[in-house]
Every structure is written in C-alpha cells, then in structure tokens.
Specification:
By secondary structure, the chain is of the alpha+beta class. It has nine helices and twelve strands. α5 packs antiparallel against α6.
Length: 290
C-alpha cells in the first residue's frame, strides 16, 4: 500500500487543477507543468525548486492496482440528508475558460454613453448569462465567474480591459459542450454590440469520469457493514482520483462538510465523520489488498 500526495490539486494559482496527478498518469509532461505560469507570474518549476520539492522521478509513474481517495464532500448534500458516507460514483466534467475583453479606456464623466466601447459592460452581462444558463439547464449544471479583473480599475475611468474566468461543470459531456458553445456565442454577441474585441484561453478541460463499479460497490458494502448510512453521488469538485481513473480502477469516499463550506476558514467536518471515513477507507484497502 502507498499513500500519495499530488501537487496543485486545486489549480487556483497554476492551471489546470489536478496538475500533479495529471503529470503522474502521463496526461501532462513534467516539463509542461514546470513551465506553467501562475496568476502571480511565477512558474511551477521555480516554486517547486524554491520550496525543495522539485523531484527527479520519471513520469508517468507506475500504475497502481487500484486507487481510492477519501475526501470531505465540500458540499451540503450529505449533511442535509443526514448521511454519513458518500459513495462517489464519478466526477463531473470541468471547463475553465479565461476571457479577456478589450475596449477603449476613457473618462467616465466626459464620454457619452453612445460613444463608449466598455469591456466592463460585456463582462458583467456575460457573468449574468452564465448564472442564468446554469439555472435554465438545471441540476447538475453549475456555472461560476470566480475572477474578474478590471484595468485600470479606477472609479472614474471606463476600463480598457477586463479579464475574467468562466467555470462550467456537468456530469453529461454533451450538455457541458452545449453550455460552452452558448457562453461563447453570447460573448460574441455582446462584444459585437459594444464594439469591443475579446480573446479566450482554455485553462482546464476534463470530461466527466465514471469510477470503477466494483470498487464503488466495495465502498458501499464496507460502509454498510460498519452500520453507516450511505448515498451514491457524483463529485461536483475535481479530484486526483479522476486522473488516476485513466490508469487503474478508482473510486472515492466522501464525508459530510458542515454547512457545505469549503475553501473557507469555516470549513469543518466532525471528528466522528472523519473517523468513519477513515475506517471505510481502511476496510476497502484491506479488501483490495487481499
């Protein structure tokens, strides 16, 4: 048995997310990963070297017999339902796009509205459309604009440029592709109406992943044998397990998250839930090892 820790699972500073596990399974070369530039201008390779973690092991790495990941849910479903263990059957597809909109910077007081080429108007309208689209498509479609940066970012200046991100996710690849196309079509329409230019850049794009049925069943039976309540569910967040699923049978175990909070100082999972999840992981690994 081996315990693995993969660099840059979140991908907020260096895209894409799950970078370390993606390199491990051969989906991204170590050289490409090292050359990735972060939102602060640094590179992955330079930062790994700075903290003493720039390794020399060859990639891709050895494929395990199986891979099982224990994680907090990072959402409210288990707590709301009063369920102790989430039996994760897959991970929804993830699409991250960076959009840069370029217009004309001008004085906010002296430039008539009819003569403006305002990238901020396009950015805000696109953000609203992402929200409306997710609601229209319904569960499990989600859409988020998590970053929006104005330049020069001054109260009395029409911005020259806006850079924003669009995060789309769905368990259905066809629906996810349709959502991507509709966002790009709306961006083109908004930009044309305002007379601004734009560029898009893919930060991350992963198709939905279905986990191994035998290990899913094993997780469920191990939890139920311990008297724990279970719920089969997909993961809304990306995880290293979805990368390892490319090379070996894989599944995940979820424990509840208090109020569904994650990426937040108030993130919390009760110690009893942590212990229950660890005990399920233990029994699953012992069964696989046999």
């Amino acid at each position: 048995m081996a315990v693995a820790f993969f660099s840059n699972e979140e991908g907020a500073r260096f895209a894409p997310d799950m970078m370390g596990s993606l390199v491990y399974v051969g989906g991204l070369s170590a050289e490409e990963a090292h050359d990735t530039v972060g939102i602060d201008g640094s590179t992955v390779g330079a930062e790994l070297e700075r903290i003493g973690y720039l390794g020399s092991a060859p990639t891709p790495g050895l494929a395990p017999t199986a891979f099982v990941e224990l994680h907090i849910e990072q959402g409210p479903v288990l707590e709301e339902a009063g369920i102790q263990i989430g039996v994760v059957d897959g991970v929804q597809g993830i699409s991250w796009t960076e959009v840069t909109i370029v217009g004309q910077s001008n004085h906010a007081g002296t430039t008539p509205m009819r003569l403006r080429r305002d990238p901020g108007v396009v950015a805000v309208a696109l953000g609203i459309f992402v929200r409306e689209l997710a609601i229209e498509l319904g569960h499990p479609q989600v859409g988020t604009v998590g970053r929006m940066e104005f330049s020069p970012n001054l109260v009395n200046v029409v911005p020259a440029r806006v850079t924003m991100t669009v995060d789309l996710r769905n368990t259905d690849e066809e629906v996810l592709r349709s959502a991507e196309e509709r966002v790009l079509a709306r961006l083109a329409s908004l930009a044309a109406a305002e007379g601004v230019g734009y560029e898009t850049r893919t930060l991350a794009r992963f198709e939905p992943v279905i986990f191994d049925p035998a290990i899913i069943d094993l997780v469920e039976s191990a939890a139920q044998a311990q008297g724990l309540s279970t719920l089969r569910m997909p993961s809304g967040a990306g995880h290293d397990a979805q990368m390892l699923a490319r090379v070996c049978p894989t599944a995940m175990i979820f424990t509840p998250s208090h109020r569904g909070l994650s990426h937040n100082p108030a993130e919390h999972t009760d110690p009893d839930d942590l212990e229950a999840g660890a005990n399920v992981l233990l029994d699953v690994l012992l069964a696989l090892a046999r």
